[in-house]
Structures are given as structure tokens and as C-alpha cells.
Give the backbone structure.
Amino acid sequence: MTDSYLADRFAIQDLISQYAVRLDAGDFDGLDELFTADAVIDYSTFGGPVGSLAEIKAFLSASLPFFARTQHMMGLPDVHLNGDIATARTSCNNPMISTTPDGTTAVWLIGLWYDDTFLRCDGGWRFSGRTQTRCYTLTGLTDTPMSAE
């Protein structure tokens, strides 16, 4: 392994990590720094759109505020480099917490894979495509606060 190879892998891993951090923070405009202008993103496996980053940001802005908290826990990506392009498959476990009308919480636990394509650009690596593939969805769970009592 060369230093260049390791640097590319770390840059792609950081890109995947930044996606999760920005999504969970609700920083959808921050996703602009992570994707190419012509990226195609496919969220259809969970009923979302297939489209451009602008379309995906509109979808996220409309749907994620339903949840009080989300936590996209990304697994280690299986990265394959080929010059200025790369692919990766990354597992994700995503608990999503919502508040029900009676004030209790409900938890969705979603498992998925992200299948990504990347392009090396002037500013570094960027997503050029991202597809979600469903693994599982668990609902009916509750968030139980822990106390020191």
C-alpha cells in the first residue's frame, strides 16, 4: 500500500463520515461540499426520491424534522479505488427517535447499506452517486431514559 492509496481511502472514509455528521445535525446545505454537481442519489428503497442533490435536500428538509434525533452509525466502508474514481459499500444502522402526540417517544431502527460512487475533483473526493439498499426496519420500539436513581 502506498501513501497515496492510504490518503485516498482516508479521504473517502472522511467523506462518508461527514455525510452522517451533517445529516444528523440537520446541515443539509453542508451536503453541497460532499457531492458533485451532477450526483444522482437514490433513496427509493425507503420510499424516498431518486434525484439530484437539490431534490434530496428538499426531501430531507421535509421528512427528517419529524424525528427529534437521528444517529447514522456508519460501518467500515469497503472501498475500491480505480484512479480518479472509486466505489464503496458501507453499512449503516440508524435509530430515529420521534415524539408521539401523547408525549412518549417512538423509535425506528433502520439498517441499510450505502452503495456509493466517488470522483476525485479539484477540491478532493466527492460523492458522484449514492444509493440506499434496505436491510431491515424495526418499529414499535421505545426510548427509555436512563437515570441515576
In short: The first strand starts at residue 35 and ends at 42.
